[in-house]
Amino acid sequence: MPARYASAVSAAPYRVPSPQTEADPYTVAWANIRRRRRLAWLSYLAFLPVGGLTMATVEWLFGDGAGVVAGIAPFGWILFTTASFMSSRCPHCGKPFFHTWRLRNPFSRKCMHCGIAMGTPKSDT
Ligand SMILES: [Zn+2]
């Protein structure tokens, strides 16, 4: 039976592992900030259905007033994720990325202090 290819498909360079490269520290920091921001927005979106369902279930199980106490946990989760997201630090200047001492912008795509755009690798600075 004749071979379909001139050389074996599994021959080099396919079997040579790619060289390990060090991750750009800014890229890691941007991914961390994006993850925190995504978690905070998902918390906002999920608050009404999850918080409402939790409150209604607890209210149904334990009676009047218990649902309000159960609603504290989802609200506390929102406070936690928002604080975590808004306190993210810029990898370039080390200051808070989304706020200055008087301005807050959770939609900002640039550092509120040094102006570096989110996603900029360290090699471009
Ligand atoms: Zn900065």
Question: What composes the largest sheet?
Answer: none
Measured between the Cα atoms of the first and last residue, the distance is: 58 Å
Q: Uncertain spans, ≥5 residues at pLDDT below 50?
A: none
Helix content: 40-55%
Residue share in β-strands: under 5%
Secondary structure tally: strands? 0
From the spread of the alpha carbons, the general shape counts as flat
User: Could you say how many structural domains there are in total?
Assistant: 1
Compute the CA-based radius of gyration: 24 Å
Order of SSEs: HHH
The ligands bound in this entry are: zinc ion
- Output mean pLDDT: 87
Could you list some keywords that capture this structure?
binds zinc ion, mainly alpha, single chain, 125 residues
Describe, in plain words, how this protein is organized in 3D.
This protein has one domain. It starts with about 25 loop residues before the first helix and ends in a 39-residue tail after the last helix. The protein is built from 3 helices and no strands. The chain has helices spanning about 25-60, 65-70, 70-85. The mean pLDDT is about 85. About 45% of the residues lie in helices and about 0% in strands. The protein is mainly α and about 120 residues long. It is flat. Helix 1 (about 25-60) runs antiparallel to helix 3. Bound molecules: zinc ion. Zinc ion (ZN) binds near residues 90, 92, 93 and 116.
List the helices and strands and how they pair.
Blueprint: H1 25-62, H2 66-70, H3 72-86
Helix pairs in contact: 1-3
